[in-house]
Amino acid sequence: MKHLPMMTSYVLFIALCASLAYWAMQLFKPKVRDVVVPALSIGDASKLEDAAGLFGGRLSTPVASNYQLIGVIFASDPDESVAILAMDGKPAQAIRTHREVAPGVTLNEVNRHHVLLSEGGVIKRIELPENPGASIR
Asked: Which end of the chain is flanked by fewer CB atoms within 10 Å, N or C?
């Protein structure tokens, strides 16, 4: 019984400290802000070609500047596809896949919107213009 007043005052002092700490935290806490989730943009999605350079692929295919793709005849059999090409300002010629376009230049592949030429082992891509009739002179 001799220590009861001292234990009571100790417990009350601890309760007073806890109460003061709680009210100080309530008084000085920062204002609560709303958390807004950023909207996902579909346009920010990376293309597969952009990531190709990370894994040893080519970032872009060189473009052949002295060739102009006038049109394509795309067949289900890749060997029967034909590209209509104009070279160095000469009249356009129809060339089948895997045939020689010029000395050292071969038509590798014909797609619906582009062709791939092999010039000295380097693959070059020629795009089909949006309006093919406007490019013929």
From this structure: N
- Chain-centroid distance of CA 100 in Å reads 34
CA distance readout (Å), 2 to 10, 14, 75, 132? 14, 20, 107, 107
What percent of the chain lies above the pLDDT cut of 70?
A: 74
Report the C-alpha gap between 93 and 125 in whole angstroms. Answer: 17
Distance of alpha carbon 117 from alpha carbon 27, whole angstroms: 74
Q: What is the total count of domains within the chain?
A: 2
Cα-based distances in Å from 103 to 64, 66, 99: 15, 14, 11
CATH number, domain of 77, equals: 2.30.30.830
Reading the block at residue 108, the tokens are 């590798």
Tell me if the pTM is above 0.85. Answer: no
Reduce the secondary structure of 42-75 to three states and give it as a string: HHHCCCHHHHHHHHCCCCCCCECCCEEEEEEECC
Distance CA 90, CA 70 (A): 12
